[in-house]
Amino acid sequence: MRDRSWAHGAYLAEFASADELSRAVQALETKGYRLMETYSPVPITRGLTYRRSRLPVIVFVAGVVGGVLSYLIQWYADAYAYPIDIGGRPMNAVPAFIVPTFEGTVLCAALAAFFGFFFIARLPQPYHPVFEIDGFERATVDRYWVGVDAGDHRSSPDLTPGELYGLDALRVVTLEAQP
Amino acid sequence: MSAAARPLSEQPARTDRLALMHGRPSAGELTDHLLAPLWRSSPLWWLLFALSSAGTLLLIATVTYTVARGIGVWGNNIPVAWAYAITNFVWWIGIGHAGTFISAFLILLNQRWRGSINRVAEAMTIFALVNAAIFPVLHLGRPWFFYWLIPYPATMNVWPNFKSALPWDVAAVTTYFTVSLLFWFLGLVPDLASARDRATTRARKIVYGIFAMGWRGSGFQWQRYRVAYVLLAGLATPLVISVHSVVSLDFSIAQLPGWHSTIFPPYFVVGAIYSGLAMVFVLVLPLRRAFKLHDIITDAHLDALAKLTLAMALMLTYSYVIETFMAWYSANPAEQYTYLIARPTGPYAVVYWIMTALNVGTPQLFWVPRLRTNPVVLFVASVGILAGMWMERFVIIVTSLNRDFLTSSWHTYAPTWVDWGILAGSIGLFGFLFLLFVRFVPSVAISEVKALSIQLSAARPARATSDA
């Protein structure tokens, strides 16, 4: 499941605590809603479930590539392109090359984790429809929101806001579909 | 008096004092309290900022003088080719290690107390590394050619020699700096979003908004964020061990008595974390007082940090003993002379004995529970440990070099005013960067503290204390 862009419009409900949000999410799932997203100032433990992240695989591959590349650069520099014989020591000096190989592995893996995250989370993203909502600033402070896509097969403009109020929402906001 | 003999009424008082967080402020109050330093300044801040700016100017002046005149303006001379510059380099890099230890190691071990101090510790790492990087580059003699250390296809057709320890240092330090910076920024994103959403002026909203990258705290973002954060923690953890090990290899791959020792990598890593923990105290204690963070950085944090410091001190003491024992046991006259005669009785004997007293003696105070939570004792002891660890690197470097194999080449090293100016200036630069950090960046991980607060409220209040 992807992060929602609310292109078809949405109904968003505000709650005062993580517990109330968790209960609301469960209730909405039982009612049959599927296209949902939550917004919270802290990660919530009982929220929506998402597809397993592929980031660990990307990081692992980047680490292996970084390690191999680091070793190859050293081999190319000191054993192939510019070999210097110092006291008859081997040109391809495996123990000496291990240190930069290790560092290259960690560096590439860390860069992949960092940039991979921002790519997957589609950040930086200066504009998102939720930023239009008055008081949504508190979603990074002390308020918890759940949004239901207007394109969800269960959504209806007459029924959904009422159902959200029924879950003890402080208020419900309707986002129009994006032109 | 044993714990069992105490009247029952006293016990809750002590456990309460060691709670991870005092009071249960609302999430809004907590956010505003932790963001407050971003919106207003104080006369104390300006005073410290003026002092550290003066230190930074001193650094700029002495470095410019060094580059213009050459490193002959320092006290180094053959055989003491490494002196203050490399001492400062090893000292600053070591200080950085505690930051990564606290932020990466402790998250993998699920230590919840790290959340209140990890941001400060990570910032300390980055600023310590900025300082550390100055010294080897200056020591090159022609610092404008530092890029010759990086492997790139040059028209000269020359490549760096990776069998030397210098390119290892370049790889280790640049990797460490990059990973620390990425980890720090990733941790900051949700808090920068809080700062954006609480900003008092439009200009601040825009600036924090740019750095917050459009974070909106969606469930999807949080889930991916946690994965990336733990992955970066896992990647930073081996760096805690590896960076100072690589630095120690600069010494131990040489054949010099006093350097040529297999204990060096673990010995350096322990010393690094030890000095870094002392620096954490030096930064956190004033910060806690100035920003009234006593409810968030509690005695439990000080107690845990002091215990860690004591553990590191014991491991370091063990390294001192084994290093000396091995020199004697090796039956090598040069090794025996360096460790058993030159260091304890030579021209730098005073530094050697002060170093031993500070590094081995001071932390023994932390056996007493009451002293582990006394800010004054902790601060003074930490300054002592930092001085002691600087002297340790000085003793390792200078006493091993100054008495060369031939007595005719012996040379006693003395620093010049430029050496002192650069050392004092680098402390000024560290303070300068740190002050900017506490003023413009949330210095406590707000979202982590809020999550902890929710967790502690959910648990029974009496149970919450046992986590300390």
Give a structural overview:
The complex is a heterodimer of chains A (179) and B (468). Chain A has helices at 18-31, 55-81, 94-120, 160-166; strands at residues 10-15, 36-39, 144-149, 171-175. Chain A is of the alpha+beta class and 179 residues long. Chain A has a four-stranded antiparallel beta sheet. Chain A is rod-shaped and about 85 Å long. Chain B has 468 residues and is mainly alpha-helical. Chain B has a single domain (35-458), classed as Formate dehydrogenase/DMSO reductase domain (Formate dehydrogenase/DMSO reductase fold). In chain B, 49% of the residues are buried. Chains A and B meet through strand 2, helix 2 and helix 3 of A and helix 2, helix 6, helix 8 and helix 16 of B.
Q: What would the average pLDDT of chain A be, to the nearest integer?
A: 92
- Based on DSSP secondary structure assignment, what is the total number of beta strands of chain A? 4
Helix content of chain A: 40-55%
Q: Numbering strands along the chain, what is their spatial order in the largest sheet of chain A? A: 2-3-1-4
From the N-terminal CA to the C-terminal CA of chain A, the straight-line distance is 23 Å
Range of helix content of chain B: over 70%
The overall average pLDDT of chain B, rounded, is 91
Quaternary status of these chains? heterodimer
Structural class given helices, strands, pairing of chain A?
Answer: alpha+beta
Element-level helix/strand string of chain A:
EHEHHEHE
Rg of chain A is 25 Å
Strand fraction of chain A: 5-15%
Taking the sheet with the most strands of chain B, its summary is: none
Q: How many DSSP helices of chain B?
A: 17
The CATH architecture name of chain B reads: Up-down Bundle
The number of distinct helices of chain A, counting runs of at least 4 residues, comes to 4
CATH third-tier fold name of chain B: Formate dehydrogenase/DMSO reductase fold
Strand content range of chain B = under 5%
Low-confidence stretches of chain B: 1-12, 462-468
Radius of gyration of chain B: 24 Å
